[in-house]
Design a protein that fits this description.
This protein is α/β, with parallel strands linked by helices. It has helices at about 5-15, 20-25, 30-45, 60-85, 100-105, 110-120, 170-175, 195-205, 220-230, 240, 275-290; strands spanning about 50, 55-60, 95-100, 120-130, 140-145, 155-170, 190, 215, 235-240, 250, 260-270.
Length: about 290
């Protein structure tokens, strides 16, 4: 039997996601490619691995057995790679850093410029996504996150706590009595695609925002800023970023921050003994941590 690990990975991701489209998005390939890889594994094993329903792919009993075996292989392969990387004392090479969209544009460029001047032998590869990267699966070596990780095999260092505010153009804000929280009933907000979760989150923090207040929806945060600049609504932004954008101003200052967000630096514990990864980890901690 010819065993292709790429096909096996496609099967694992599809089994975990329950659909080819979601798995393809996570792996960064097209849905047809994902489908071909899963079909190729089924053909090589001569086993039906999925029951194809209308809305979801379900593992067959034999598919469940194969999934459990391949998942063990994947974990072992990842741990082996991590241990090998941890044993490396080479200061040269590439390190992958996972950051969200706003950090990639407003924080990281100047940071990388300074880092490259200090350590030009280390290449920084940026993984930009608002989704949490899987460090064990080597989607990244280091990640900057807004939530403290719960996994025991991850090392985390808190960088700081950020204040998040609403930001809009002075012209837009002049239409509202931003000293009065009743103005919130009329404010227009640039929101996220999952507006129900977004509204619920704001509600938990004491901000009475309803669906009618969501002017535009997008999961691409730089778009939020550009729409806010056009005066089409207010965007929620970290203070350090929002204050740096000359076209925008803080709204509802008297009400305090919308919420507080922690900033965490995370890597797998096996990688802390890798000189190049430790170097970048410590550099980020110095540059982005509380001064």
């Amino acid at each position: 039997m010819d065993f292709d690990w790429n096909n096996a990975k496609a099967f694992i991701y599809t089994a975990e996601a329950g659909s080819l489209s979601l798995a393809a998005k996570k792996m960064g390939v097209s849905q047809p490619t994902m489908g071909r890889q899963v079909a190729a594994l089924e053909e090589s094993l001569n086993l039906p691995l999925f029951e194809r329903t209308k809305n979801k792919l379900l593992l067959t009993p034999k598919g469940r057995i194969i999934f459990e075996q391949l998942k063990q292989m994947q974990t072992l392969a990842s741990e082996t790679t991590l241990k090998a990387e941890g044993l490396s004392h080479n200061i040269q090479g590439s390190v992958t850093l996972s950051v969200n969209q706003l950090d990639a544009i407003y924080r990281i460029p100047s940071f990388i410029s300074k880092f490259r001047q200090e350590q030009p032998s280390i290449q920084v590869q940026l993984n930009v996504s608002n989704l949490k990267s899987d460090l064990l699966e080597r989607e990244a070596d280091i990640a900057i996150r807004n939530v403290r990780p719960s996994e025991e095999n991850l090392i985390a260092r808190k960088l700081k706590t950020e204040s998040i505010f609403f930001y809009g153009t002075p012209k837009l804000l002049s239409k509202y009595d931003t000293e009065n929280d009743k103005a919130l009933s009329n404010i227009q907000v640039i929101g996220f695609e999952d507006s129900a979760y977004f509204i619920s989150y704001l509600d938990e923090k004491g901000w009475a925002i309803a669906d009618k207040n969501i002017a535009i929806k997008s999961d691409f945060q730089p778009f939020h800023i550009e729409m806010a600049k056009q005066g089409l609504g207010v965007a929620v932004l970290p203070q350090s970023i929002g204050d740096s954008i000359p076209e925008l101003a803080q709204a509802f200052k008297n009400l305090g921050s919308v919420f507080e967000l922690e900033l965490w630096l995370v890597c797998h514990q096996e990688l802390r003994s890798s000189r190049k990864i430790r170097y970048l980890f410590d550099f980020i901690s110095r540059e982005l941590g509380e001064k």
